[in-house]
Every structure is written in C-alpha cells, then in structure tokens.
C-alpha cells in the first residue's frame, strides 16, 4: 500500500514495538484501531490501520483529522493493552514521512567498555545524549538492543566509535589494550543479520569514516558515489553490517592534501542527508508466490527500469527492493503490478 497516496502524511503515524505472533494479523489491526480511538490515549476517528507491513512489528495508523494525529503524538507513553495479548506492550510512535527508512534496530555488545565504564551508567548517558533511541534492558553479558531512526543510530555508532578509539589509544600507552571489538547486528524486516565485519575497526590517521544507511549507500554508489570521490582524489572501502554501512576514506595519492579527506567526508555526508529526505523504498515480497510469478516480477522489473533511470532495483530470492523518489517508486511499482497482473490474467483465460 502506498501510504503517501492513501492519506496525507500529517494524518499518519508510524507505530513500532507491536508484538508478533500472539494474535492473528486482523485481530492485531482491530486492537490497534481500538487503542488509537480511545480518549485516554488522546485518540479519535481512525480512517485506516495498515498492518502488517513490510517491516516486522510496525503499523501505520491514518486518522481522519490532523488534530487527532497531533494529540496522539503529544501523549508521553503509549501502552498497547488487551486481554488477548496477556500483558501490555510499550509502543513507539512518530509522524510518518516519505523517507526511505522508518526505523533501524540493532543489537550492541558493550562488554568491551566494562573496564572503563559502569555499563548501566553508559546506557543512561547514551539515552540522554541521543534521546530518539529506545533501549532494551541491558543483559548480563553486556548486550543490549536499540531501536530508532537511522540518524539516531548513526549518532550512537559515532559516539561509541569515539569511545572505543579512545580506549584503543589508552591501550597503546599501556593503560589498556583494546583486544576486543564491539559487534553490531542489525534487524531488518524482522530478521537478524550476522555482521560480516566488526563494529569498531582500527582507523588510522590517514582515514576518515562515514556511516551511512545501507540502502542510501547502494543508491549513492550506483548513481553518484564514484564521481563524488574522484573530484577529491579519494578512494574508499565499504563495510556493510545489515542496515548500516561504514565507509573508510583514504587519499588516492600519498602526496594528497589531508584536507581533501575532510572535504570528501563532508560531501558524502551532505549528499546522504539530501538523499535521506528525498528517497523512499518499496518492496515486492515474493514469499508465497509461485516460481513463475517470482520470475515474472524480476523480468518485468528488469524490462521497464530503463524507463526509470533514477530508480535502483535490488532483487533477491525473497523480495525485490525499489529505491527512488516517492513519485517514481510509486509509478514503477504500479506499472510492474499492472503488467504482472495482466500477464497472468491472459494466461489464465487461455
């Protein structure tokens, strides 16, 4: 469903933290509707509930009036309560926007900071520093899960990188050797993805680090990335951990000015910020489709993408991601659905 065309974004909220598998999807949609209609939750008339979505544990609630949307957002805490759920579940809500991302979930291993910090105090410090993040209780092994927008997760990673590198420097002075690295796992569409690389890398002084959303990185790399780096005489290597990609920038020539690295980093960060506001992502889920249907979706996406030169298509066995501007992704997905539907209707009539 295209939320941007179903209702104005100022009347739509994104709800995360919805428990999965406890009740049927249609029952959960009813529970959500009741919750956001109740006066105690500052709710009102609900036009539609979009659940389930392509992101596990996330729903879109569309209100009849913008005033109700604003009232719901002002409520400090939302608890989803119903006797069919067995207990209450805290919800995180935010105003819908047509960005490529809604939220990112990560599992962090903070155990390497145990000798320097009381981990509970470290978590409290991070919560105050980056208030847009939602943390789970800290586990005894130092692991903690965190959820929030990509910019907030990026700020968290930058913060921890600085702390980890500080420990590494102290280790080189004989105070402490950083022989472990904080690991990160990211959750995308309900699946945990084990990282191929570590969260904290040894960054030398000749490198600059940029943290990007992985889909933004893919889009940038496909359309804009190379030319952005070439003009700064910079080369790069990317390390992807699920939804987050870390780019390490280095001068392409030993004699290059170190200020070129700074300018390259600033240029990529500025470009990333612009893309984050402009892009959105749609997904064709191939789960449950027959093999001919999956093949047809992939064939159609491939055949029409030349008509949409600014669209990035990323196919996989289970889904096809489409990234581009809001209008172009909408037109692209509508055209694909139309062609696929027409193809199988004709085949069925034969």
Question: Could you provide a short overview of the structure?
Answer:
The chain has 350 residues and is of the alpha+beta class.
What value does the average pLDDT take? Answer: 78
Query: End-to-end distance, in Å?
Result: 30 Å
Largest sheet: 5 strands, antiparallel
The sequence of SSEs as H and E is: HEHEEHEEEHEEHEEEHHEEHEHEEH
Pick out the low-confidence regions.
Answer: 1-7, 172-203
Strand content: 25-35%
How many domains, as an integer? Answer: 3
Largest sheet strand order: 2-3-1-5-4
The count of strands amounts to 16
Question: Helix count?
Answer: 10
Spell out the blueprint of helices and strands.
Elements: H1 3-6, E1 12-16, H2 25-37, E2 46-50, E3 58-63, H3 66-74, E4 78-80, E5 89-95, E6 104-109, H4 119-129, E7 134-135, E8 143-148, H5 150-172, E9 184-188, E10 191-193, E11 207-213, H6 214-223, H7 225-230, E12 234-241, E13 244-251, H8 258-278, E14 279-285, H9 291-304, E15 312-315, E16 319-325, H10 326-349
Antiparallel strand pairs: 1-3, 1-5, 2-3, 4-5, 6-8, 6-9, 7-8, 9-10, 11-13, 12-13, 14-16, 15-16
Helix pairs in contact: 9-10
Domain RRM: 11-98
Keywords: RNA-binding
Protein name: RNA binding motif protein 43
